[in-house]
Amino acid sequence: MFLKYLKITKENSVIRDIQFRKGINLIVDDSVGKITGNSVGKTTVLKLIDFCFGANKKIIWEDPENKKQDYTLVKNYLIENAILITLCLTENIDDENAPNIIIERNFISSDREVVRKINGKSYTDKEFEPKLKEIFFPENIAEKPTLRQIISHNIRYEDLSLTSCNKIKILWKNF
Fold this sequence. Notes:
Blueprint: E1 2-10, E2 13-19, H1 42-52, H2 58-61, E3 62-63, E4 66-70, H3 72-80, E5 83-90, E6 100-106, E7 116-118, E8 121-122, H4 125-136, H5 147-151, H6 159-164
Antiparallel strand pairs: 1-2, 1-5, 3-4, 5-6, 6-7, 7-8
InterPro entries: P-loop_NTPase
Protein name: DUF2326 domain-containing protein
């Protein structure tokens, strides 16, 4: 599977449309001068992809250094404007006719207004993650590992998850 696009919309208006290409995709700051390239949305894009794969919506507005602190401005904007995140994956990025999987989610909590769709079909909170697991890992019919456990090895944006993948544990055995 390839990432095809990530779209952020407000009602019918596109806020951001990120098209992915085959190979490495870089998120860079295109400003000139002494501006650093910080705050261009690199981590946010990863969090939005993770959110589409079932992560808790709080990862978007929660302060990573203090989990009890929210970025209220971001949270309110996403909820009050019913921002919709759409992630499209495809089997073959070079073939426009290749089958796609389209995942849509918003940040609203109300059961009447929440969007949690896969290929246009709505799912409850309990059904969503197992359905994604069934689509992406059809041979894995066991309850464990969950989809979140599987993809946590592939989507890494927090310091702890980045450094823990580089640790080598050496076990010594006394003879």
